[in-house]
Amino acid sequence: MTPRPLTPTAPPPDDVLGPCITDILTDDVLYNILEWLPLRDRVKMRRVSRRFRDLSTKFSDVDGLALSHEHIVTSNYRLTSSVAYKPGCPNHLPRCHRLLPRLFHVSKLAIHHNQALNVFLFNENAFKQVQQLVLPNTAFDFQLLHLWLSLERVLAAPKLTHLSILATKSTVLGKSRVFTVAHAEMVKSKRLKVLQLQGVLIGPKALSMLAAKYGDTLEELRLGGVCVHTPDSEAYWQSILKFRKLTVLELPPSLFSLRSHPVTREWSYFPQLISLQKLQIYICGKDCEMQSFVSHLPKSCTQIVVVNRSGHNLQKIYSYAGQNIHVKQLENKLVGLRWPGNMLDTHGHLRLSAFWEPPYFRQEDMHNFIITPEILLAQINNTDSVLPGLAQSEIYAPETMVMLTAKESLADFHSVKSPRSGFGQKMHTAREHSPVVEEPMEAVDILEFLSQLRLPGINFFGDNDPMPLPNQNQANNNFVMPPQELPQGAPPPVPNLPDISDPPTTPPPVVSTNGIQSPVNPTQPVTTEANVSTIQAVTGDGSTITSTWTFTDISIIPSMSLTSTVGSVGTMTVNIETETETGTDSDSISTDSTLSMDTTQRSSSPVRTPEQSHP
Amino acid sequence: MAATTSTDMSTLNTALDKISNIKLKCKDGKLVTISKRIIRESEVLSHNFSVVDEVEQTIPLPDIHSTVMKQIVAFYDLIEDDSEYVPPSKYTDRPTKDHPGVGFFSNFTVEELQALTHACGYLDMPRLQDFILCHMIVDIIQDREIKEIRERGMMKTDYTPEEEAEFVKRHEAPIEVVQPQ
């Protein structure tokens, strides 16, 4: 439509300045104007006049806030707008802290970065009206002790109804982030309805505490993005069944997945979820019996959301007992998040993903990590996750770890309250407590380390007791762990499923000071005289698993990668780089079944052949 | 839409069907004929029609001048093809300067905008109020420096030079805008 020309009904004012707009408009009208303005223009209006300054700093209409170390996002009923500080701007945090006290009344709060949690250190009563809260998973890293007080305060919001812990985009999914019993205690709200966890580990005790607190209120339990200790699945399920009003349930692959050989015992739990309406699960079995599974769902369930890794086409609608259950397939596509549930934004630092998919222990996670046969079996199993010691780590109290860390950082000690009763009786470092992080290995420990990595048919030391080979009569090279090697409570061995996940990525190599490529710690001078750079063990059946160990505190091996297949006899190759007076030499050793290597040798001798190094 | 509940809406439609020509008697005693759409868009008028059984065809409106009421009628004639008004939930959905309803106010004086603002506040007309405010934002505030805002809004600064200098010093840290989605 073409606008019609309109003749002003009143002549223009003679005076150029005329009446001031702020003189003739009421505060309500001016504030309505400010509600339409993006945050940047709104802040800018403070400089126009004192009246606009008073009005533009009210922010009473703002009901949502997102914080990171780079930007602030506000939202009212009209618009969502952002102000981003240029990287390197030194004044953004003080400016942020001046603005934030005017926004403490918001009901939706998304914290994208740990740095933004510092606001709770200086404001005990900050954001007490929050109903929807989003936190980064990095804040639950038990090595970041200075965040515990902030977490305790932000999780204590009395009106909290939605709690989301999401993974940050910039970090890999590590195992040092645990939603512990202490975190479950910190949540003080009495009416939590939605709990969404991603990128953290959660143990059975923490979930049990949540079930005890919110069994009558929680309606949505979204655990698809967590990793659990699969052998404790019974305890997890018992906790889940205590959420009596559960309508939406996301189950992580490490707890439940549809596979070729269903575990009917787990299927029997679903009829007890009498209020369930929507279920999100992971499918990895090629011959999964979806129709049979649907028959185990309660009548209230009308929708199943799946990530289908089976390669098998699913129907859109499955019918059972006259009821249609719609199946929606998700792409496991990561998306950025600004607010819970809507307003996806690429500027956000947090991501939403459907599941924490196997393999759970990627190369980046394997720093200083001893791979046990149980964990190798879990890797092969493709959906199970073995986290030995998670049960102990989930009952950490922050005070326990602070006691020793305070020796190194007094600030950490001041940032945490006095120890609670029941905790802190034993003083351990986080490294000693950790189920997955071990002490940095010394060079002399490598022999012991390698001894724990003994693979079937491969003998690192040439002794007479190699790991037994799998029975050649077993079909298709499927490796079955000897019964005595299984941990207590571990799931029964299952056939080797093909690895359908994305291939693990290797961290980009960084050239260290002496020219040797090392994936980590590029600034640390490498004083090594003999570097074992790669070890490969390849066997014949084709499917492989890959893991990388990186040693930052030893002087011999900056990096080592192991490629092996649990199967029949294979070959092994060791690449050894030796630093001599004339430069760096490298060579490789290959063997079919037996290899011996003396890694304690530190002399600048040339690369030895297998015969020379064999004891 | 102004009338919120279905019961009120049906009552309003029934009442409006009985009336062919609706006139408002304004503050200066003049009669202004309005369309049924204006009644639907006004919370006050639609409520009046929905709760009263017998509605007179001439409604007294003692607080609004006929000149202002004619401007409102002209505005709604301009946007007669627009659909039912839903307040925008996203910033990108707001009325922009390309919309004829926003450009309608471009030749209005500050006094006229003031009178219109009071009128739409009195009659509770969300669409008109939003369009006036969007016009003010587009015309006066958006993408303009402080000096331009003061000039176009005819606003005089009441800050002292020292305070102005302090502002510049405090806000000299650069900021950039993230385009909202």
TrEMBL record, chain A:
Highest rank taxon of the organism: Eukaryota
One Pfam family per UniProt: F-box
Compositionally biased spans, kind Low complexity: 585-600
F-box domain segment(s): 25-65
Matching InterPro entries: F-box-like_dom_sf, F-box_dom, LRR_dom_sf
Composition bias type Polar residues, residue spans: 470-479, 601-615
Region Disordered, residue ranges: 464-504, 577-615
Name of the molecule in the record: F-box domain-containing protein
Species in which this protein is naturally found: Panagrellus redivivus
TrEMBL record, chain B:
Biological-process GO terms, alphabetical: ubiquitin-dependent protein catabolic process
Pfam family of the protein (one): Skp1
Keyword check for Transit peptide: no
Ranges for domain SKP1 component dimerisation: 133-172
Gene3D superfamilies registered for this protein in UniProt: Potassium Channel Kv1.1, Chain A (3.30.710.10)
PANTHER family recorded: SKP1
Family (UniProt): Belongs to the SKP1 family.
Name of the protein: SKP1-like protein
Originating species: Panagrellus redivivus (Microworm)
